[in-house]
Amino acid sequence: MAAKKDTKEKTEDFIIEDAFQRLEAIIKSLEDPETKLNEAMELYKEGVVLSDKCRTSLEGVEKEIKVLNAEEA
Asked: pTM for the complete prediction?
């Protein structure tokens, strides 16, 4: 049970706007020719994780909107 609670708390703490800002910073770093390969790989991995979290968050919001719209109909 504790794992579910921890996951839920992490999801609730997730702020998509902050993730978008971090993704923009990652993209800038990846486009910088001075970025070393190892650093670029770590940034890429971080970007993939953030992108997945953003997608999951947006899918959750979309479901909530559909439920609200169905209740209003």
From this structure: 0.76
Torsion sign across C-alpha atoms 9, 15, 16, 20: negative
Quote the tokens at residue 9: 């708390």
Contact yes or no for 19/53 (Cβ under 8 A): yes
Residue 19 has what pLDDT? 98
Domain ranges of the chain: 20-72
Tracing tokens 């579910």 back to the chain, one arrives at 4
* 26, burial (CB in 10 Å: exposed 0-12, middle 13-18, buried 19+): buried
Task: Please report which residue ranges of the chain form alpha helices under DSSP H.
Answer: 2-13, 16-31, 37-72
